[in-house]
Design brief:
Helix content is 66%, strand content 6%. The strands form two sheets. The protein has a five-stranded mixed sheet. Strands 1-2 form a two-stranded antiparallel sheet.
């Protein structure tokens, strides 16, 4: 592993790191100020961190005042720490953004050490601009943190395998420690990913990889000690139900017969286009180029990239539960393959030169077409919504107002994007200047990201965030003597916006009826279809004090009293059922 050494100058490294951080800031930061936490995962995870602070209990996570056995505590610890430092409801998203930046930097150093400094820079920018990575990094969810710790573990393990490393034992211990943090982030998958990747890399590198000997025993002790220091006291505190859930239901249950997000084995292949956009078309020649270099003496980066990519893809494909975000640990491998390939393109050593030009033309043409088609899409937003939801005229009207609001901005961004795509196409295809492709694509991705974060997302927050319902029913909630949830669909989500640690959950029709007929002012948050099933049409108790769409569901705030200082007059369930205002 002769490439695993620090060969770049400190000045060049600092410049590259600053460039990567600046590019990440352009793509990541605007959404912190323009987008609300979108249901259900973002507010739920942030609420778990908030309850850690309010309950002063950092051992066992809580949600809605009850034990939360779905995930280990690392993400929530970090979110709670940032929440205490004053980051507010953005604390969870700051954890994800910081972790994603760390993953990008590890990708840069890996590419630089395995191939070249230029390859490291290209690899980092390819990961940063990839569709899955960019979208997931902006969300306050756990997957970016898992990707960071698994990448750190793999990086340290590869450094330990390097024959030039004078401190390989320290690198192995660092690898095990990072894997331990990954386990504390998302369970056994945090160990399985780096372990399988490093075993795969060891077999592909053969005798060139240093094994480590007895240090693996010490590393295992470090890993088990880190995990056990939390897990053992947590299991004692949580009891049997908590132990069964976090040890078995959340691990084996997701592998074989997942209770959620069950998808066919080809799920990731079907979604690969947007996962790796805008570089998806270049993945095939990049993989082919790496396969051809497998037997070369200088093909270390090719073997590491292929082993990492293949192991993670197969591993998550075997899971019955599949989501695109689960593939975040594969992104550094994708970056390594892209970095190596585009450096070879720049050196005129890549396979299929004509095919490469065609792929450049298709990619940039896709960007240009997407920008131009966004204009009629914004203009016909209401009609598109009416086709998707023919029974919901109110939604079509709301979407139409959003389309009209963004239309002038869409025209300006579309013209700029089409011009950049045309310039990039001319430089990359007609003049055969491969160095122009990356700046052009980055500018296009940045333009799309800024357009989404600054123009579109603020206008669709009301369709995606549970905060909208709380704001609409603020007058009722301020005067309610009791607040309940009907069903656990959004357990914890509305705690965040009502600032309540525990909201009682009504588990059946009888409990709902009893609550609405009880003395005092009672408000209930429920899904629209659940409310219809429970209360009938016309309603037997209560009326709708506020309503909003959250994703594909309609949420209601039902009250058993009326008050005249609400902005809009309350609707009855009968009126809502008939689609009247």
């Amino acid at each position: 592993m002769s490439k695993m050494s620090d060969s770049a100058s400190p000045f060049g490294t600092c410049r590259d790191v600053l460039l990567i951080a600046f590019a990440a800031g352009i793509l990541f930061l605007p959404s912190l100020f323009t987008r609300e936490l979108w249901n259900p995962d973002e507010p739920r995870y942030m609420e778990v961190g908030r309850e850690m602070v309010l309950l002063d209990d950092y051992l066992v996570p809580h949600l809605n005042g009850e034990l939360y056995p779905d995930k280990p505590p690392m993400f929530f610890w970090l979110a709670a720490g940032l929440y205490r430092m004053g980051f507010g409801l953005n604390a969870g998203r700051m954890v994800a953004l910081t972790a994603s930046l760390g993953t990008i930097l590890f990708t840069y150093f890996l590419g630089r050490q395995l191939f070249s400094r230029q390859a490291g820079l290209v690899a980092a920018l390819a990961v940063l601009t990839a569709g899955l990575f960019l979208a997931t990094s902006k969300m306050g969810v756990i997957d970016p943190l898992l990707a960071f710790f698994t990448t750190a573990s793999i990086y340290a393990g590869l450094r330990a395998m390097g024959n030039e490393s004078l401190h390989f034992r320290q690198w192995w211990l660092a690898s095990y420690a990072a894997a331990g943090l990954a386990v504390l982030t998302k369970g056994p998958v945090g160990l399985a990913v780096p372990l399988l990747v490093l075993v795969g890399c060891k077999h592909t590198l053969g005798r060139k990889a240093r094994k480590g000997g007895w240090i693996h025993l010490a590393g295992s002790v470090v890993l088990l000690g880190m995990v056990g220091a939390w897990l053992v006291p947590a299991l004692i505190r949580g009891g049997t139900a908590y132990s069964d859930n976090i040890l078995f239901h959340q691990t084996a249950g997701r592998v074989w017969k997942s209770y959620s997000h069950r998808n066919p084995f080809y799920y990731y292949f079907l979604n690969s286009a947007w996962i790796f956009l805008p570089w998806a078309l270049f993945l095939v020649p990049a993989v082919w180029s790496a396969v051809k270099a497998w037997r070369n003496s200088d093909g270390v980066s090719a073997r590491v990239g292929l082993a990492w990519f293949g192991v993670v893809l197969v591993f998550f494909t075997l899971f019955s539960g599949k989501r695109a975000g689960y593939l975040m640990p594969i992104m550094p491998a994708f970056g390594l393959l892209m970095g190596r390939y585009f450096v070879l393109v720049n050196r005129r050593q890549h396979p299929w030169p004509r095919v490469h030009k065609i792929l450049v033309a298709i990619t940039l043409s896709f960007f240009a077409a997407g920008f131009l088609l966004s204009i009629p899409a914004a203009a016909m937003a209401g009609k598109i919504s009416r086709l998707a939801y023919p029974e919901d005229a109110a939604l079509a009207q709301e979407v139409l107002s959003v389309g009209r609001g963004v239309l002038p901005w869409t025209v300006g961004f579309a013209i700029i994007g089409a011009v950049i795509a045309a310039i990039g196409w001319h430089a990359g295809c007609r003049r055969d200047n491969p160095r122009r492709l990356f700046p052009a694509v980055f500018l296009l991705v940045a333009l799309l990201s800024l357009f989404a974060d600054l123009i579109v997302l603020p206008r669709i927050n009301r369709f995606k965030s549970g905060k909208t319902l709380i704001q609409a029913g603020e007058a009722y909630l301020a005067n309610a003597d009791f607040l309940f949830l009907y069903h656990r669909d959004f357990d914890g989500v509305y705690n965040l916006y009502t600032r309540k640690v525990a909201i009682p959950v009504l588990k059946g029709i009888e409990e709902l009826g009893t609550a609405l007929t009880a003395p005092g002012k009672v408000a209930v948050i429920a899904r629209e279809n659940h409310a219809y099933e429970a209360l009938g049409t016309p309603p037997r108790q209560g009326h709708i004090a506020a309503q909003t769409r959250v994703g594909h569901r309609r949420m209601l705030l039902i009250a058993n009293w009326r008050q005249g200082d609400v902005n809009s007059s309350p609707q009855t369930l009968t009126a809502r059922k008939r689609g009247k205002k």
